[in-house]
Design a protein that fits this description.
This protein is α/β, with parallel strands linked by helices. Helices cover 38% and strands 25% of the residues. α3 (96-107) packs across α4. The longest helix has 16 residues, at 171-186. 40% of the residues are buried. The mean pLDDT is 94.
Length: 243
């Protein structure tokens, strides 16, 4: 049974079709990297999986449970499916520690001591043990993004979604965020990653999916898709991003 499955998923903003019948299955512990041109539907696909966007038609399943059924518990789904965005979305007036512990204490009713212990463990994992009492503005962009990853992991999700998490960073800060994601991938986390970091895709993705105009144009092992794309649209896109 796939960890995440999309069956005939459509999504539209008014009359503009963004996803056009997407079928996709992601296995447990698989790292799926999604690439494609801007406006092609990549981010919308992730947001539909996390129920930040509703599907126009079709179904989405998490470990066999339909997320798109009427009356689904939205907060319950978002506890199981963590998401990290392009912009960090940290609470600017809260310390790193409080940014991490707020949701688990409020939503999971986790005792303060237990939440703090989990937060310290995750901050060590992303290399930020010494920054627990800092405010977000005292951190670099790369450090803030690593805090955002740790915050998502505080809810102990079954799946992690990453939406262009390095695109807002200065180039010299990208590697520290990718290192945190590598550690997560190696640990066996199921991950759906939208990115233009082709080196990351080649190194760590189990499968690469190319989306354009709301449809999956091509998918396969990263080396095959990147080095020997079969479709003209994929070839055109890769000529621009790999040159």
């Amino acid at each position: 049974m796939p960890m995440v499955e999309l069956r005939g998923v459509h999504h539209a903003y008014g009359t503009r079709k963004v996803l056009c019948g997407v079928d996709l299955a992601v296995e447990r512990s698989e790292v799926l990297v999604i690439i494609g041109p801007s406006g092609g539907g990549k981010s919308t696909l992730l947001r539909c999986v996390n129920l930040l966007e509703s599907v126009t038609s079709g179904s989405i399943f998490l470990a066999g449970e339909e997320l798109t059924r009427p009356g689904v518990d939205l907060n319950g789904v978002r506890r199981r499916v963590g998401m990290v965005f392009q912009h960090f979305n940290l609470f600017p007036h809260l310390t790193v520690m409080r940014n991490l512990t707020l949701a688990p204490r409020m939503l999971l009713k986790l005792p303060q001591a237990q939440a703090g212990e989990r937060a310290r463990m995750l901050l060590e994992r992303v290399g930020l043990s010494d920054h627990a009492q800092h405010l977000p503005h005292q951190l670099s962009g790369g450090q803030q993004q690593r805090v955002a990853i740790a915050r998502a992991l505080m809810m102990q999700p079954e799946v992690m979604l990453f939406d262009e998490v390095t695109s807002a960073l200065d180039p010299e800060l990208v590697s520290e965020v990718l290192d945190a994601m590598r550690d997560l991938a190696v640990s066996g986390m199921t991950m759906l990653v939208v990115t233009h970091e082709m080196g990351f895709a080649r190194e760590l993705a189990d499968r690469l999916v190319f989306i354009s105009d709301g449809v999956i144009v091509e998918e396969g092992p990263p080396k095959e898709v990147l080095d020997h794309p079969q479709h003209a649209r994929t070839q055109q896109f890769l000529r621009k991003v790999l040159r």
